[in-house]
Amino acid sequence: MIKGKVIAIPPTAFLDELKATTGRIRDRNRLAKIGANAVGNKIKSHFRELNQRPNKNGWTKSNFWAQIRDSVQVTTESDAGIVQIDDPRFNLKYFGGTVTPKNAKLLTIPLQPEYAGVMPSTFPKDKFFFLPVKNMSGGSIGILAEALGDNKVRAAYLLNKWTKHAPQPDALPPMDELRVIAVDAMKKAILRG
Predict the structure, then answer these.
(1) Residue 187: its pLDDT value, please?
(2) What is the four-CA torsion angle of 63, 67, 69, 71, rounded to 10 degrees?
(3) Is there a domain that residue 76 lies in?
(4) CA-CA distance, 16 to 1, in Å (whole number)?
(5) Are residues 82 and 10 in the same domain?
(6) Is residue 112 domain-shared with residue 172, that is, in the same domain?
(7) The pLDDT value given to residue 192
(8) What angle do CA 96, 65, 174 make, to 5 degrees?
(9) Is there a domain that residue 20 lies in?
(10) What is the tens place of the pLDDT at every residue in 112-152?
């Protein structure tokens, strides 16, 4: 089952460019694997660079892009090299989309660094209280807040019915660049024999 983005590298799609190198292609499956490996390595390198960016909130990094990098798989199928990003979370970065809750009524978006990656349900029931929010955009309906004492309150989680995400333009290197990398790797393999 395909969970994430798939990029196919069929040598037949690049036949004109490859034939100009030698005029004859012997092992298309081997060439496909070589092209796909080159593309897979470039994509992994790209994800490594994305993972170096600081967290946008200044919080501890989750190493999301390292996890995406570790999900990259390279295979061959019917004379085509396949580069698959096997983490379904990547699709939201690449295509954008709307996120809705799957196992709860609302999405809980942490507003404090210590709550990142921690579900409110893991805390005692009396830790937070609900503050309704009116006229907020983006599907927001309220805030889970905590009492700090001395009549101080701190917002812990934003509660949303949904969130919308635009595609991230640099989620992958440009397809033209990946095509050049695949063709160059296959040409070098043909020249080596």
Answers:
(1) 85
(2) 180
(3) yes
(4) 32
(5) yes
(6) no
(7) 79
(8) 60
(9) yes
(10) 999 998 999 999 999 999 998 876 666 778 999 999 988 89
Residue 85 shares a structural domain with residue 107: no
Supply the range of the domain harboring residue 140: 99-164
Residue 30: both structure tokens together: 């081997």
Q: Give 24-46 pLDDT, tens digit per residue.
A: 566 778 888 999 999 999 999 99
DSSP H helical ranges for 80-132:
89-95
C-alpha to C-alpha distance for 49 and 85, rounded to whole angstroms = 16
Whether the CB-CB separation of 166 and 8 falls below 8 Å is answered with no
* Overall number of domains in the chain: 2
Identify whether the C-beta of residue 164 lies closer than 8 Å to the C-beta of residue 98: yes
- Tell which residue, 91, 52, 88, 45, has the closest CA to residue 69: 45
Residue 1 included in any domain: no
Pairing verdict, β 152-160 and 163-165: unpaired
Mean pLDDT, rounded, of the chain: 86
**Cβ atoms within 10 Å of 97's Cβ, excluding its own:** 14
Residue 136 lies in a domain: yes
DSSP letter for each residue of 171-188: SS--HHHHHHHHHHHHHH
